[in-house]
């Protein structure tokens, strides 16, 4: 009898708490772009994510709290080897930097979106690279007419315990600060 009471309580409470949870399937347009940029002590580099490798859809589960969306289990899973840095040697260095052999995916886990104006928001997300997660708050520009979301994430590779490759006996070094620029287009 006690087990039945616990089961009924669990089912009842789950139903109450999940009533506010909304779910939308968003189709990700192939015109979306994702780019990682950084600098060395002598040059800069850009690694562009292959748009055909983007997942076809993003299933967004969220609750609304006034002007905010609180996400649950909403994540973009990106193939770590789908970045093109312009040449095969730079691609290999980039894949070595992010430990793509051991950690084949980069995860962008959405946590919260706070609408700040009609065309801007602050998004909180966990980024997982090489098995390490770090929380970021990123300003986002929104174009509702195109369902377009743009922003730049500034991160330090030391936060993910990544060691940049050194070339020519350490004369060429990658700087710790890099940017992830996203320009995402969605369709419901």
Structural descriptors:
14% helix; 56% strand; disordered N terminus; 188 residues; eight-stranded antiparallel beta barrel
Question: Please, could you describe this protein's structure?
Answer:
With 188 residues, the protein is mainly beta. It has helices at residues 2-18, 88-97, and strands at 22-28, 33-40, 44-49, 57-65, 68-79, 83-84, 105-117, 120-129, 132-143, 148-156, 166-167, 172-187. β11 and β12 (172-187) form a beta hairpin. 16% of the residues are buried. Mean pLDDT is 85; it is low at 1-18.
Task: Return residue spans where pLDDT drops below 50 for at least 5 consecutive residues.
Answer: 1-18
Number of helices: 2
Radius of gyration: 20 Å
Largest sheet: 8 strands, antiparallel, barrel
Quick one: overall form?
A: elongated
Percent range for β-strand residues: over 45%
Task: Please state the oligomeric state of the protein chains shown.
Answer: single chain
Q: What portion of residues is helical?
A: 10-25%
Helix-strand category: mainly beta
How many strands appear in the DSSP assignment?
12
Kindly report the average pLDDT value. Answer: 85
Span between termini: 46 Å
Strand order of the main beta sheet, please?
1-4-5-7-8-9-10-12
- Helix/strand order, N-terminal first: HEEEEEEHEEEEEE
